[in-house]
Write a structure and sequence with these properties.
The protein is mainly α and 137 residues long. Helix 2 packs across helix 5. The protein starts with 25 loop residues before the first helix and ends in a 5-residue tail after the last helix.
Length: 137
Amino acid sequence: MLVATAFSVNIGSAAEKDPLAPRVPADQMAAAKAWKNPMKATPDNIAKGKEIFNGKGTCFTCHGNEGRGDGPAGAALDPTPRNFHNPKLKGKTDGEFAWVIKNGSPGTGMISYVPGVISEEEMALVILFERSLHDQP
């Protein structure tokens, strides 16, 4: 007996969610915004963040090696993963980024990565790397 299964994936057709839309629940926003990144945005720390992003953190699988939201696993997601080169993301606080990395982002493919995949310190370094991309075309 031969059984055929057909499925389709809309690669590249799903748009990234509005970068300005809140991802943190309203009742947790004040606490998220109060979080301050304990790591300084030095070239060394940004490089460490990129190494975690493209290694242990596995962020690259969805967000791509350069953080453009074009990773191989992200191609099947609707909405597409965050493009960290989007300058509109400068309006988000480090705490909002941290909340999403810790809790995931409902309605997207983003899952929780802290503490299961990376530590809080590693998360802080990844945020520095992501932030370094906002002004790069």
